[in-house]
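Re: the request from the purification team.
They wanted to know what the chain is likely to look like in 3D before they choose a buffer screen. I agreed to run a prediction and write the result into the notebook, where they can find it.
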Amino acid sequence: MGLRIVIIGAVAGGATAAARARRISEKAEITLIERGPYVSFANCGLPYYISGAIAKRSKLLLQTPEGFDARYGVKVLVDTEAVEIDRTGRRVRVKGPEGESWLPYDKLILAQGGNPIVPALPGVDSANVFKLWTVPDVDKIKAYIEKEKPESALIAGGGFIGLEMAEAFRERGLATTVVELMPRIMSTMDPEFGAMIAAKLEEQGVRVITGLGLKSVRGAERKAELSDGSLVDAGMVLLSIGVRPELALAKAAGLTIGPSGGLEVDDALRTSDPDIHAAGDMVEVLHMVSGRRVRMPLAGPANRQGRIAASNALGMRMKYSGALGTSVFKAFDGVAASTGLSEKAAREAGFDAGAAILYKDNHASYYPGGEEMALKLVYERKSGKLLGAQGFGGEGVEKRIDVVATALHGKMTVDDLAEIDLAYAPPFSSANDPINIVAFIAQNDLSGYAPIETAAGLKASLAAAKAGGEPALVLDVRNVNEYQDGHVAGSLNVPLDELRFRLDEVPRGIRIHLHCRSGFRSHLATRILKENSYENVVNVTGGYLAILADGGFDLE
């Protein structure tokens, strides 16, 4: 007889583990247990079924129990819950349609994922309150929209699912509000990207409220009360405030839980019991940049972990090195993507982090149809080691983030990224790709050739100067009409093309913070000043666009 493999959880990690186990061994006896009625469904596709982008519900069902059995010879038990692990006897007690029974195992793989957080608030049990995690969840939402025809929707939470559902609800014609307790939506990215994403949503008619939480749901009134007492129209409410790992079974079995709150596994995805492996949203993994143990509930890592867990359970030796948290999502016609550490996360992890920001068309500016994208590269100042990247724009954003993800995996530096040879033709890129250029900016910063600071750094310097610290001058080198349209209060305007002839207007012996619209003209101005013996100069990376995105400035 082959090994008896029992897998608990049949979506991303579990389904992948089952298929991989069969490919490794034709003799293994594989049983897949799923608490819900569906296996291997496309949970990442659920918002797009609500919006209508995915027309057929059947497209969400990647495999059926019968299909799994026919193709892989895997016994699938749906509507069946694993309620106890007997580690000594190596067996699992399950409760299903036919009652309770014990399933023996030689190797057990846990892939139970997580569960959406439902806060204990008044009214959350109302008929118009939903969560989105499974196929039955999406069925309930779609049926409610079609039957009750609500005119408005409130989404509590501004993360991936919440923002994807904001688009879905707008596509269905609902007046949609996103409420996020944090100061900005998409808090895994740096604040300026949260602002850009919010602006895109608002452009499409989504109301975005930050800094407030959901206090109660008034189902009968079709209203929701926020933490400041205000009321918002809410014909339906979606709770999307986070996910908790499903750990009840693991805890009851005495398996070790890690410091981040996920199930602890080693680099073979083995738990504290050598006969039990685990994968997916329930485990904690190594962050490949910070070196910390973290929870990373993303589909890509879950699928790869399922493959590796099954391989190791059947005697192969495969190492799981960790994850970067690379992610992307669609916000109407906008794309937001990130990998590695944000600037904020890098500083929290103890890095002396630098950050370079670029606003640049996705392809050659002279080729029609270019779309401006924002790219932010985060790096360690001491070593030039790459730490992460974020992007927002249209076509091509995810391509650039994937390049940085590859560079992070290879432990490359800013210098490596500046030299990387990327595909070029005018419809696709520029001779120097935006990735190369943002690395050039970082190189110039690290070498001192053209020092940079972020908009947040400028804001801190201005606040310190106002409080009696080192004096600071903001030198705006945009054209006069740009300056008149809006500028930092108290800034001096000397257009770049006039700067060489007006140096007598620029004081010496004071720290000068230069900016233009996006950073390139002020880079040239930085070099002019430095070549004329101005020593204490710094360029605001990303320019006035970054200043607006960061917010909190006194503008005129």
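For the purification team: Residues 146 and 172 are 10 Å apart (CA to CA).
Please add any questions underneath this entry.
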